[in-house]
Amino acid sequence: MKLSEINIYPIKSLAGIRLESARVEARGLEFDRRWMLVDDSRTFLTQREFPVMATIKVTVDGRMLTASAGWKQIEIPFSEDNGKKTTVKIWNSSVKAEVYDDAINEWFSEALGTKCSLVAMTPSSKRIVSPFYAVRRFRDQVSFADGYPFLLIGEASLADLNSRLPEPLPMNRFRPSFVVKGSEPFAEDKWKKIRIGKTLYHVVKPCERCVITTIDQTEGEKTGKEPLATLSGFRNQKGKILFGQNLIADEPEGTISIGEAVEIVESR
Q1: Are residues 256 and 197 in contact, defined by beta-carbon separation less than 8 angstroms?
Q2: What contacts 39, CB < 8 A, 6 or more positions away?
Q3: Which residues, in sequence order, are bridge partners of residue 184?
Q4: Is the pTM of this model over 0.85?
Q5: 120-175 tens-digit pLDDT
Q6: Cα angle 89, 91, 97; round to 5
Q7: Gap between the Cα atoms of 244 and 157, Å rounded
Q8: Strand partners, 150
């Protein structure tokens, strides 16, 4: 088995970036979901409410992000260093974050069609993984991702799903960090520990899928009930639709690259 895709999503719920290699960190891949858009109550925004977020592209260059919505672009420094700090809410978590200045917030508010602010996770911010699934309770951390540092899906799992759908869907509907080539359909459900390159990962929890999987990631529009309608028929466990597996790195350091071997260290 080989690693066939590496993806990051620098600003939560905006368009992703496919990479040839990436640095592995405790919170996830470097630059992955270290930024997030929030409303006036400092609660996170996603494609669930604003599908258009999928169409806002982000690039990373040096110490600068560039966001693009149509022909409009804005450059965003990694840190504003303006002293504006706040507490933001993402699901059941509250975490300290840095708030960007008005010009940047106004740009995103216009792009989304709703008032919002951009926030950044600082080096001192600490968001803990759920203790029910953590490898090191109250120590494992995560970025602004929904719950876990990494998400893995096998190419064969998507192929199996697509064989059941009226029209096949691309992998970007599921927004994985890692994609694996050469495994059997849903083989990842049986993995407990895997090694990709030099890094050991714990496979801690299946990923519960939501309405974002029904949003066309190119057009930023909802397309109907698929793939959730089909997945619910054979991937429904106690009312939760599962597709993909969440991972936590054992010793997050170094880099990961396309083509590296994926080795099963321990199965369930």
Answers
A1: yes
A2: 45, 114, 115, 116, 117
A3: none
A4: yes
A5: 998 889 999 999 999 999 999 999 999 999 999 999 999 999 999 999 999 999 99
A6: 25
A7: 8
A8: 247
